[in-house]
Amino acid sequence: MPMPTIRGSGRQSQLYVAGKPIRLLSGEIHNSSSSSLTYMDKVVWPALRPLHMNNVIVPVYWECVEPEEGIFDFNLVDGLISQARREGVTLTLLWFGLWKNSGSTYIPQWAKLDRVRFPYMQSNGVDEEAVFHKADVTLESVTPFCQEAVQADAKAFRQLMRHIHTLDPDAGTVIMVQVENEIGILGSSRDYSPLAEAAFHAPIPAAVAEAFSVSGTWQEAFADEADELFMACQFAQAINIITQAGFEEHPILYYVNAWLEQFPARAGQYPTGGPVFKVRKMWRIMAPNLALFAPDIYVEQFRDVCDEYASDGNPLFIPETRGSKDTVSGLFYAIGKHNALCFAPFGIEDLLRGDSGLGDEEKRMLNIPLDARNADQIQIGRTLAQTYQLIAGMDDLIREAHRDNRIQGFMQYHDRGTVLKFSQFTAKVTYGSAGGFFGPPPSEHDPVAGGFLIEISANEFILAGVSCIVSFYANDKRAVGVLRKEEGSFTAAGWQRGRILNGDEQMIHRFGCEPSVLRIKLYEY
């Protein structure tokens, strides 16, 4: 059986598992959930079953895999794979090794206590506004310039992937692995440890000099950008070493994720050196073993981030995003606009329970309203489940439409609507559902508008979306009428028609608070 692979690039990318195309309608569980198989069985899996997911993103921890140096324990991994098979879903594993959210909190106790073999990064102690600033210049994060530390992580990762290969040789359950999580340095623009200082003042690597057409030390070569590119280079090299160790044992897909820049976008305010968009070139040079670079999207500029990360041939893959009013609209946009390979809200097990499990400070960092109601969270979970089911039924059609450039997506962001032009007709999309005569009045708790349109033929369209109104205009400026309008859904058997809409229901192509699909055939007169 062929191993998981990605064919094509950018918007034309397709993920194949067991030789068949698949889109990961996923979710990432909380950081500590998978440390207990009992907790997974009692809390997590029951919460996930109603969501119509086909994949779950699950952490695996170095501290659990190698509790004593050289002694490996794979009981958790075995249990997670067994549970996933029982539930009928695939797994994407997160390797919480040397770095998780820039820190080294998941390394084994024996590594934490050995500061000689596993030295921490250091700041220069002058950035008083750093996010997690400490008076001490030592940061709780192992320096990537310590090759012994990187090799120790790579050794444990190799053993993990070797074990997974024996348990899941055809990669039918574990299909991808994220190497580390939101890596970089917080609290300083770069590492000032002795190992890092020596590297910073040495000549840049030959591969970097050639790719960027520069020379000299990092400061001489890159001036104001030196700190971030210096850290990106070193983190990418470390990740490449760890990834290569895993790939040699089990050749599946490996990727990294990024904590994005946010205001104030200064080095050290976010994990500097991680795979943010502006240092992608450095990452591609120094980490060629990675299949893709993924954004964790907790910022309001969801569309802009998708547009960035779907450019330059990189497949759009979203392993983390917030559960909020724009979750479903973001899903529609990511798939309709960029053919996203994966969409995964974080803390997925809490959505239908109405409890995010996050404190106020965590909500601020993730840009989640502090006054978000439990009822809102539950509705977000229900709407996500409906949308996953909707998309799963029509995914073959979506892939074909992207192949032929016959699909366009949209999402509301401080604007009132958009215009989407097709071969014979132009669609005007107005954000917000119609109230009054056409339905209940809009509410502040309604989902943000989003959706996509697929051109089946020159005069026939499939519309999928939420909280919007669509009108059609002929490109040759003639009048437009509706030949046929149906509501329904897609299943393995194809289009399943619901009502045939006419009269008042034909006047306006409206999408309310629940995701739905319309099939419309137009004519000109």
Account of the protein in words:
The chain has 525 residues and is α/β, with parallel strands linked by helices. It is 31% helix and 26% strand. The strands form five sheets. The chain has an eight-stranded parallel β-sheet. Strands 14-17-18-23-20-21 form a six-stranded antiparallel β-sheet, sandwiched between helices. A four-stranded antiparallel β-sheet has the order 15-16-19-22. Helix 12 runs parallel beside helix 14. The model is unreliable at 130-135 (pLDDT under 50).
Which keywords apply here?
alpha/beta; 6-stranded antiparallel β-sheet; 8-stranded parallel β-sheet; 23 strands; 525 residues; 16 helices; 26% strand
Total strands: 23
Global outline? globular
First-residue to last-residue Cα separation: 54 Å
- Give the spatial strand order of the biggest sheet: 4-13-12-11-10-9-6-5
Q: How do you describe this structure in short?
A:
By secondary structure, the protein is of the alpha/beta class. The protein is built from 16 helices and 23 strands.
Question: Would you spell out the secondary-structure blueprint of this structure?
Answer:
Layout: E1 5-7, E2 14-17, E3 20-22, E4 24-25, H1 37-48, E5 55-61, H2 62-65, H3 75-87, E6 90-100, H4 109-112, E7 120-122, E8 138-142, H5 147-167, E9 174-181, H6 194-200, H7 206-212, H8 218-222, H9 226-249, E10 253-259, H10 280-286, E11 292-297, H11 302-309, E12 317-321, H12 327-338, E13 342-345, H13 360-365, H14 374-393, H15 395-403, E14 407-411, E15 417-421, E16 425-431, E17 450-457, E18 460-466, E19 468-474, E20 480-491, E21 494-500, H16 504-507, E22 509-511, E23 516-524
Parallel strand pairs: 4-13, 5-6, 6-9, 9-10, 10-11, 11-12, 12-13
Antiparallel strand pairs: 1-2, 2-3, 7-8, 14-17, 15-16, 16-19, 17-18, 18-23, 19-22, 20-21, 20-23
Helix pairs in contact: 1-3, 5-9, 9-10, 11-12, 12-14
